[in-house]
Specification:
Elements lengths: L2 E3 L5 E3 L8 E6 L4 H8 L12 E3 L5 E3 L5 E3 L6 E2 L2 E2 L5 E6 L11 H17 L8 E3 H4 L13 H6 L22 H8 L9 H12 L10 H14 L4
Helix pairs in contact: 5-7
The structure holds zinc ion.
Length: about 230
Amino acid sequence: MNVVDWPSPNHAPRPADAAVDVLALHYTELPLKESLDILCDGAREHRVSAHYVLAEDGLLHRLVPEDRVAWHVGRSHWRGREALNATSIGVEIVNLHGDRHDYPRAQIAALIELCHDILARHPAIVPRNVVGHSDIAPKRRIDPGLRFPWARLALSGIGLWPRPGAARLDAASLEGDVQAALERFGYPPAVGVTTADIVASFQRRFRPSRVDGIADPQTRALLADLLDQVGSEA
Ligand SMILES: [Zn+2]
């Protein structure tokens, strides 16, 4: 992997008592240069950053050391915790709109290598804690988008993906309230957003072919399978 140091002034100390246990993936929505300019701008009113920016050709830009907090997620929630910048690593992937533009092969190959390195350095990042910005900030954020290859990453051991057959309608279906089940997996409560927003967020990640916010049988079956995979970890 080709790596270049591109230091950003936008970072803070990690809290003393918190292990890094979340890996958050984003798309930049802007070309490489503009993205780096914003993420390294120490004079903006709302300063932002990320640990890494990954160019379309796979060149990795290292902005913030992993033992410092970068400011990449903002208001966020996962598995009962909020303000996830403190305990997460953020990777910004250059893509102008992940719903419309595919991620180039070289970029994803570099991303997989980077994620393997990060996961090896931070064993507390369990598979379900590899998330998209859209998972931890439903409605407010849609990145990394419908074209992000989550299944490819999961095949490489990065994050979770429903098992083959999970989407069949005769698969084990989800019992009970969908909001409660989404929260068991990690999604936020319906506060400031609706359950439909959170279902849409789940679909964006795990069933990108139809994102309508309706907890239909297929959506429920996929969620049941994922909960089964995490088992007692829930
Ligand atoms: Zn983002």
